[in-house]
Amino acid sequence: MRSxxxxxxxxxxxxxxxxxxxxxxxxxxxxxxxxxFHRGWVYVGHQGEVPNSxxxxxxxxxLQPVIMVRDQHGKVQLLLNRCRHRGATVCQERQGNTRxxxxxxxxxxxxxxxxxxxxxxADAYGDDFKREELGLVKVPRVATYRGFVFGSLSPAGIxxxxxxGRAAAELDLFVGLSDADDVEVVSxxxxxxxxxxxxxxxxxxxxGYHPAIVHASFAQALxxxxxxxxxxxxxxxxxxxxxxxxxxxxxxxxxxxxxxxxRIYDSLNSDPLPEVRxxxxxxxxxxxxxxxxxxxxxxxxxxxxxxxxxxxxPNLILIxxxxxxxxxxxxxxxxxxxxxxxxxxxxxxxxxxxxxxHEAFFGSASFGGPDDSEIxxxxxxxxxxxxxxxxxLSRGLHRExxxxxxxxxxxxxxxxxxxIWRQWKRVMLQGAGAAKTARKRTRNLVxxxxxxx
Length: 453
Ligand code: FES
Ligand SMILES: [Fe+2]
Hints:
By secondary structure, the chain is α+β, with helices and mostly antiparallel strands. The chain folds into two domains: 42-161, 3-layer Sandwich (Rieske Iron-sulfur Protein), CATH 2.102.10.10; 183-427, Naphthalene 1,2-dioxygenase Alpha Subunit, Chain A, domain 1, CATH 3.90.380.10. It contains 17 helices and 21 strands.
């Protein structure tokens, strides 16, 4: 294996292009797990996934298995899923409700706050056996913003607020569609994986250039549906396609977005969601009630499919009603989890409309998600071509605008991809000296100080 200090990231990431080895090289993958996922802030889960005391879900931070659990006092804990005896995972169920975690090898049992509470045959240990020092290891830093739970495996670093920066406003908008920070995450998980690098899905999620090509069949089906429907109306075709209006933004720190807020103003000038009236007995009343309580714009957001389209570096995507989480598995294998959310305020019929329209584009037999995954695997395959090993990211570079620290471009410009790579490179270069840190960490672990840095 190459020393990670031998990798010249300045040579591999240019302003207008990146080298294909960044998607394929296992040494680079190991380095980015270390520097990006095992040191920085990583999105782990939403507190709505563990609504009740003793609820848990299995997660990962980078490659490390984590249990997200709401303990008996209502606090969300992030525990590393590894028995302190001989290292087996102590929980294998993907989700559930439990009173404790019991390792199935020799039966050591842990409380929901990680404390070691049970050791079969404990009298076989000497006086130096300190049960209180052998709890499940906690993720060193845990911070929650509006119900979004983030973890960092590094005990030191910038705060979560500093990391989120301008992107915090987009999280506000996502949960702000409900009354409190209580989006409901009870509709199951749509999970898929593809044979390709995790950054392909990050880039694609904020790519305003591809939909008209990759998703052409969706656009055609939409037109056909409206035109062949009971009340064919050109204004509806125009309105739905107006929803593709927007701008690309680099918010800083690798957080980027396609800002479609213009669509909200479109919707205010037309009927925000005729389907609501059509299928909900109380649809008209709900529209009026929501508008009265929250104002027209927020109500229109609720009734349509959400208010933001944002990537939170390095692994969270908010689109429509979904939280999407990227889980790198290896340089060329990635798992993606989609968590559709519900809003308590809405009539069940309206939540159902939101879910169905989400499934139509993102579901496993839908118009959108599967097409994108196919593209990821084509790119990964194309990376085997070694001549001219570059991917271009120059679209719209010459016309980027800078406003209040935000870089802005047309919707189909590659502002967003450049923003992700800029942060990726910054973190990978800041981590120079990683090998030294790793050696120090190993010394600390062997010395038993527990210090990671
Ligand atoms: S490895 Fe867990 S009890 Fe032995
Ligand atoms: Fe797509």
